[in-house]
């Protein structure tokens, strides 16, 4: 049986509504308009991000509902149902924290906790906090430029990546321009901080450290061209069709593509189906994408 490790998941409310949902029980999944389902059922061939403001607001609303249902209990049930062996939990401060995700991992060993920089701290304090997180079991670092309202050009980002890079522990970045809040919300946000060019400019300066650019299998040729010669960069399969995954392996490399869902925004069932469809004729690559590539950079034992 092929092992499955999801490199890109969240539990609890990562948005600025900031409901404390992770450890609640008996939270039922609601009935609401959900464009995520439409995209999943299309085999990720229907575009998720659209220009029409009304349709985009439907997506924003559905995303908020999904995180309000994303308890540890519901997450664990979905992992069991779809036979997912491990899931990397990516916190987004100030809304979800390493301490929260570490507690989840203590309760269920299938969860692998990452941490996130606290950009409200000055650099020396930020570094000390991240060093402590590593000692306590952080297996990776998450940076979300849009939700954290920070550019990859900020020296605090560089300081955080240095801490993890020197420890040979991966950093995963959100890459992609999108708005997470509608006009009725007044949260600070700079969607342009998700522009892939920020990552393309950032990565060469840290060419010895493992860096994961989330969502970039969606733009495999462009990503490969802009990271040419960098053996340290990886991406995930979030929101990808089988055809896009095949392009990712072709252009980026079979050792550089990691299975990811962005759960709860992507679900295991449809994402797994697409990987199996993409690599039905090559189990060796399927095993790499589902588990081996991520296990290697996370230093997991078989």
Automatic annotation (TrEMBL):
GO terms for molecular function: carboxy-lyase activity; hydrolase activity. It comes from the Bacteria. Signal peptide: none annotated. InterPro entries: ACMSD, Amidohydro-rel, Metal_Hydrolase. Residues 13-300 form the Amidohydrolase-related domain. Keywords: Lyase. Pfam families: Amidohydro_2. GO terms for cellular component: cytosol. GO terms for biological process: secondary metabolic process. This is Amidohydrolase-related domain-containing protein.
